[in-house]
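Entry:
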Amino acid sequence: MPRFVYTLLMFAVAALLPLKLFWRGLKQPEYRQHVGERYGFYTQSVNAPVIWVHCVSVGETRATQPLIQALLAHYPQHQLLITHGTPTGRDTSSQLFKQEIANGRVLQAYLPVDTPGASKRFLAHFNPDLGLLMETELWFHLINQATRLGIPMALLSARLSPKSAAGYAKLGGLTRRGLQQLSLVAAQTAADAERLQVLGAQHPIICGNLKFDVTPPADSAEKGASLRQLLGKDRTVFMAASTREGEESLILDAVQGTDVLTLLVPRHPQRFAEVESLLKARGLRYVLRTELVQPLNNDVQVVLGNSMGEMYTYYAASDFAVMGGSLQPLGGQNLIEAAAMGVPTILGPNMFNFAQVTQAAVAANAAVQLSDVAELHGMIAALAADSMKVQAMAQAAKGFTLQHRGTTQRLMVAIEPLLKK
C-alpha cells in the first residue's frame, strides 16, 4: 500500500471517528470524554522527561504493569506517559497506578488517530525520550514522525499471529519501512520473531511474554476465599472467563445437565445488561455479583460477574475455567492470569492469538484444549467429577507460570541503550 493511500484511510477514520465515539458512547459514556486527545490536542502538564508506553486496552495494560513499575523505579527523573485506545484500558491504568497518577509520576492520554498532523501534535506536546509500543501496535505516521525527530521507538512483547502477519504483508513497503524504523523489536517467541523479520524487522530479539511477570494482588487469595464462602464451599464452581458475544449461549448449553455453579464473567462491561437479559430469557436462576452479600441458595445456577477489577478474585474462587474468545473465532484471551492463580483452564479451538502460550500450557498440563466446541459439555462434566485431576492441573498451572518469568528484566536491559542515546 502506498503511503498516500494509508494517509487517506487515516483521514477517513478521523472523519468518521465522532460517529463511532457517539455510537459507543450510548453504552459506555466514557467514549465521549477526552475527544480532543483523539486528534492530538492535550492539556496534561509535562514537568520532566517522558518515557511513553502505549497499551491499547485492558489486556495490554495489565500485562505491562511489571514493566511500568520497573521503569518508575529505575528512572525516577522521568514521568511515565501511558496512552490507550479504549476507556476500559484507561480506567485499568487509573486503578493500577492510582498513587503515581495522583503525584504526577504517571500521565494518561488517548493515542490520536494516525494522521500526520495528529501524530505531530502528540509528539510535540509530550516530546518523549523513548516510545514503547506493546504487542502489535504499529502506527506508521507516528513511527515515521518519531524517527524524524530522533525519538527511539520500540515494539515490546511483540506477538504476531499468522493471520495478522498476512494482513500486514498486504501493506508491503509500508509495513517494512515502519518495522525498519523501530530501534528495537522484542518478540514473545521465536515464531513471532521470524514472522516480524520476514515483514521487515531488523534483528528482532526474543524476550518472552510480559504477562508471565504480572503478580496477582496480594489479597487475591483472601478475597477469593471470601467469595467462595458466598458461592458455596461444597459446590463445584466453573468460571467462564472474559466471554465474548455469542459465547455465553454456548457455555449455558454446555453446563446443562451438570451440577456446576457457573460464574459467568463477560469481557466487556457494556455487555453486562445484554448477558443478564440472556439469563432471564432462558429462565435461569441467577444472582449478580454486585448483589451477592449472603451465601447462595443451592438452586442458583449462575452468578453474573458484573463487577470490575475482580478477575483474580474470580479465579481464586473457582475450581476450573473456560477461556473466553476461544469458543468463537476470536483468537482467545489471556490464560496466564488463570494459571497464575492455579486454575486449570479449558481452551476452545480458537486460541490463535495465543498459539505459543496455548501449546506450552497444554504440554505442561496446565490447560486442556478442545478440538470442537461440542466437546465442552463432556470436559466440564469430566473435570467436575475428577477433583484429583483438577488438583494436579492446578499445581501444574502454578509451575508453568513460574517457569516463564523474567521478561521484564530482559526488556529493561534491552531498553537501557535506547535511553542513553
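The domain at 3-208+406-420 is CATH 3.40.50.11720 (Rossmann fold).
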